[in-house]
Write a structure and sequence with these properties.
With 179 residues, the chain is mainly alpha-helical. The chain has a domain at 129-179. Helix content is 50%, strand content 11%.
Length: 179
């Protein structure tokens, strides 16, 4: 992939995330600004056409948020459908009996963008179980299990151990430094 295409794809991923965040935050103004900027865009223009705004106005949701939500969901789905595939396999190594516990699903990607969009797809379909990291502010999806099959804690405060430690160190520094 050449650098200009990579930059275009990075921009698209950023826009999908910004649209989705505007919906999560119920930020009509941010959604309106993004929709306005995307008029005529070849990827998003179809989803955010002004005539669709009139259709969306007939629902109980703010039309800007409805269009932002639809654009984020359908662009993330379209790209992940194109770049990611789920593959099923049997794992009989530790099997006690032949049942559904022997079936594994693995994801395969055409490139790094596939990984990015699969993460976005999982975030969007996480069922609203989201919070923000207390240190870096990134979104944390709480509803799906981690790769080792464990459930995520519903009270997570940090996206990973590095942020947890960095937050702890920053608190120590602020206590040590004179005011």
């Amino acid at each position: 992939m050449d650098i200009s295409r990579l930059l275009d794809e990075s921009r698209r991923a950023w826009i999908v995330l910004a649209l989705y965040e505007s919906v999560l935050n119920q930020d009509v103004e941010q959604a309106r600004a993004l929709i306005s900027d995307l008029q005529g865009d070849r990827t998003f223009g179809w989803y955010v056409r002004l005539d669709r705004m009139e259709q969306a106005a007939r629902t109980r949701f703010p039309p800007e948020l409805e269009l932002a939500f639809g654009a984020a969901v359908f662009v993330a789905k379209g790209v992940s459908d194109r770049l990611c595939t789920a593959r099923i396999s049997l794992s009989l190594d530790d099997a006690v009996e032949l049942d559904s516990s022997c079936i594994r699903t693995d994801w395969h990607f055409d490139n790094l963008l596939g990984v990015i969009y699969l993460q976005m797809y999982r975030l969007i379909t996480s069922g609203g179980g989201l919070t923000r990291c207390n240190y870096c502010g990134r979104m944390i999806a709480l509803s799906y299990t981690d790769p080792r099959g464990r459930k995520r804690r519903r009270d997570r405060k940090y996206c990973d151990n590095a942020c947890r430690q960095a937050h702890h160190r920053s608190k120590e520094r602020s206590v040590d430094s004179p005011s």
